[in-house]
Amino acid sequence: MTRPARRARPATRLTSGALPWLLPALLMLGMFYLYPIAEALRLAFTDARLFDQSTSFSLASIAGVAGSATLGTILRNTLVYTVASVLGQLALGLFIALLVVRAERARLRGTLVLRTIVLAAWVIPAIANGIIWQLLLSEAPFGAINSALRLIGVSPVAWLSDPANAMTSAVIATIWQGTAYSMILLYAALKSIDPVLYEAAAIDDATAMERFWFITLPHMRPALLVNAILIKIMTLNMFDTILSLTGGGPGRATEVLSLFAYNTVFQSFELGRGAALAMLLLLISLLLTAALILLLPRGRR
User: Which residues contact 128 (CB under 8 A, 6 or more apart)?
Assistant: First the structure.
C-alpha cells in the first residue's frame, strides 16, 4: 500500500531559517521609513519653531492649523489641482500609449522618437519644469504662447497673473511633465492584453470604439487604478513646480497643501505647524489611496 503523497508547503510560507535574516532588514526598513513619520507626528504636538532650542508639548500647532482662515482655500486648491492633474495625466498617458501600440502594430516608423520626446519631459527637474512654463506662459513680449496668439490675431491671455487662469497653468505644467510616467505604465499594460481578443472582436465586426470599451478598458482597469494611486501620491506631494511657476499666487490662487507646509516651515519658521500640515497631507493621501484600492478587483487588492 502506497503512502499518500505529502502536500507541498506553500512557497510563500516563511521558514524559521529565514527569520534571522529578515528581522534585521525589517527593523532597518522600519527605522528608515517609520522614524521620520514618528518624529513629524511628535513635532505636530509641540510648539517647535525652526531655530528655537527649547520646545514643549502643546496642541497649539494643531489648533493653529485647524483654525487657520486660509486652510479652506488651501484644501480647495489642493483638490482641484490634484484631481485635474491626475485625470489629465491618465487621459493623455493612455492616449499616447494607445497611439504607440497602434503604431507598433502597423509597423510605423517614429514610435521610438515619440516615446523619447515624451520621456524627455519626465526627466526634467520639477523646478526647471516650472521655470520653462513660466517663460512659455509669460505675459511679457518674449512669452512664446502669447506671442503665438498675437500672430493669429488673438488677444494675449493673463496665464499667471489672473487667479482664474493661474491654476489652469499649474495643472498644464504638471500634466506635461507627469504624462510620461503614466504612459510607461499604461503602455506595459496594453502590451499584456492578449491580441486574440482583438482578433475575435474583428471577426465579430466590432468597431474600434467597441473594442476599446469592451476589451481594452476592462483589462486596463487595475493598471489605471494603480497608476492613479501613484500619480495621486506624487501630485499631492508636488510643490516645486508651483513654487517656481507662480509661487502659490496670485494671492493664494495656486497654493496647495504641500506648498503651504513648505512656506509654514521655511518662511514662517513654524516647525510644529508644518509638521501638523504634513500629517494632514499624509492622512489625506492615505484616505484617497484606500478609496482607490477599494475600486480594484477583489483578487488584485
Answer: 244
**Cβ atoms 260, 77 nearer than 8 A:** no
Phi first, then psi: give them for residue 296, nearest 5 degrees: -70, 150
The residues of the chain scoring below 50 in pLDDT are: 1, 11, 14
CA distance linking residue 12 with residue 229, whole number of Å: 26
User: 271-294 and 217-236 are packed helices; what angle lies between their axes, rounded to 10 degrees?
Assistant: 180
Query: Using CA atoms, how far apart are residues 255 and 249, in angstroms rounded to an integer?
Result: 7
**H or E stretch covering 89:** helix 71-105
Q: Given this model, what pLDDT does residue 293 score?
A: 87
Residue type, 179: T
Listed in sequence order, the residues at least 6 apart from 16 whose beta carbon sits closer than 8 Å to its beta carbon are none
CATH of 72-254 given 1.10.10.60, 3.40.50.1010, 1.10.3720.10, 3.20.20.140: 1.10.3720.10
Q: What is the DSSP letter of 18?
A: T
> 45, 61 in Cβ contact below 8 A?
yes
- Residue 167: HSE in the Cβ half-sphere, 13 Å Cα cutoff: 20
> Closest Cα to residue 90, out of 169, 184, 211, 191?
184
Predicted pLDDT of residue 16 = 55
Looking at residue 164, its pLDDT comes to: 87
Instruction: State if pTM tops 0.70.
Output: yes
Write out the three cell numbers for 194: 492578449
Tell me the C-alpha distance between 46 and 274, whole Å.
11
Tally: H helices and E strands in the chain: 13, 0
